[in-house]
Amino acid sequence: MILPIIGYGDPVLRKVCENVAEDYPNLKETIANMYETMYNAYGVGLAAPQVGMALRLFVIDTTPFSEDEDLPENEQKQLKGFKKTFINAKIIKEEGELWAFNEGCLSIPDVREDVYRHEKITIEYCEEDFVMKTEVFDGLAARVIQHEYDHIEGVLFTDKISSLKKRLIQKKLKNISEGKTFQDYRMKFFGKKGR
């Protein structure tokens, strides 16, 4: 089932999310709905707060990036079919150079900005079987994970840009929070009249 994506301005996007219990009702269905919602919106990642749930849960599939011919061939291969579910994730280390990449977000449509992130992360998380894993990721895979991880910490990519750039996009953000934007995927807006 395709869920509406929560737009910028909704308080759920600012919550530090709660851990997911192993007996969380309909978890497999929730995860399947999140993947379906993400694919419907042509995203590469989606976090639970973006569909209105303050849970430490996000899904990613970096396959669309694997078609970017500007990327080295080994990174294209790494990104193709890289699909993962992250439950109760905790980044335990960020390392390497900070590098910029032009990011966007399904909850903040039509806004893209360069964001600096570390090139390599170590993260603890559970997949759907709730077995704890610790893994190291780098490059664009690490970036997508960091972006979605920020969501479960109540952080948006617009928090990581300069104050000048924030001022320049202020009107766009206000319009999004009021539902004055059009996307070809379902959205739900906190500040929209008649909600």
Query: What is the H-and-E element order?
Result: EHEEHEEEHHE
Average pLDDT value? 94
Major sheet: 5 strands, antiparallel
Question: Strand sequence of the main sheet, in spatial order?
Answer: 2-3-4-5-6
Binding site for Fe cation: 105, 147, 151
Function: Removes the formyl group from the N-terminal Met of newly synthesized proteins. Requires at least a dipeptide for an efficient rate of reaction. N-terminal L-methionine is a prerequisite for activity but the enzyme has broad specificity at other positions.
Protein name: Peptide deformylase
Cofactor: Fe(2+)
Quick take:
It is an enzyme of class 3 (hydrolase). Helices cover 26% and strands 31% of the residues.
Helices, strands, pairings?
Layout: E1 5-6, H1 27-40, E2 45-47, E3 57-61, H2 73-79, E4 83-105, E5 108-126, E6 132-138, H3 139-152, H4 163-177, E7 187-188
Parallel strand pairs: 1-7
Antiparallel strand pairs: 2-3, 3-4, 4-5, 5-6
What can you see in these coordinates?
- Its EC number is 3.5.1.88.
- GO terms for molecular function: metal ion binding; peptide deformylase activity.
- This protein is about 25% helix and about 30% strand.
- It is an alpha+beta fold.
- It has one domain (about 5-190): Peptide deformylase (Peptide Deformylase).
- The chain has a 5-stranded antiparallel β-sheet, sandwiched between helices.
- The radius of gyration is 16 Å and the shape is globular.
- The mean pLDDT is about 95.
